[in-house]
């Protein structure tokens, strides 16, 4: 059996989900979103997604800790400032916003809903293992942070 925890880089998961969203659009083209809605909102989601991702990376760089999601046990400091006061996973949240923007670009409601596959996968196979590692490294400090800041929003 394939071990999925921390085994597929989040960027690859994003690309797989984006492909599923495109295939969904091809299979169900009749479930379109009106262009007036999708054109403006896709730009908002994409810009906001990029902003959130960059804010997360900048916070990690300032703290001097790793941004490698495949090796959470190498974290050298717990980042709880900046965007991390709002969400524990800004880079994943930003990717979700990019995927929603992609679904809106495709103008397909089922494609937008397919972006939730990213949330499901990340919660179970990326975030939970990361949080276990951070709890081992930072103990009570991470547990307190986890109780104060939501996983996504």
Any overview of this molecule?
- The protein is mainly alpha-helical.
- Helix content is 67%, strand content 0%.
- The protein has 6 helices and no strands.
- The longest helix has 29 residues, at 35-63.
- 31% of the residues are buried.
- The mean pLDDT is 95.
Key features?
153 residues; mainly alpha; 6 helices; 0% strand; elongated
Task: Put the structure in a nutshell.
The protein is an all-alpha fold and 153 residues long. Helix content is 67%, strand content 0%. The chain has six helices and no strands.
Rg calculated over all Cα atoms: 17 Å
Low-confidence stretches: none
Overall pLDDT score: 95
| Intertermini distance | 33 Å
Estimate the helix proportion, in percent: 55-70%
Helices and strands, in order, run as: HHHHHH
| Multimerization status | single chain
Structural class computed from helices and strand pairing = mainly alpha
Annotation field: number of helices: 6
Per DSSP E runs of 2 or more residues, the count of β-strands stands at 0
Shape: elongated
How much of the residues is beta strand, in percent? under 5%
Major beta sheet, specifics? none
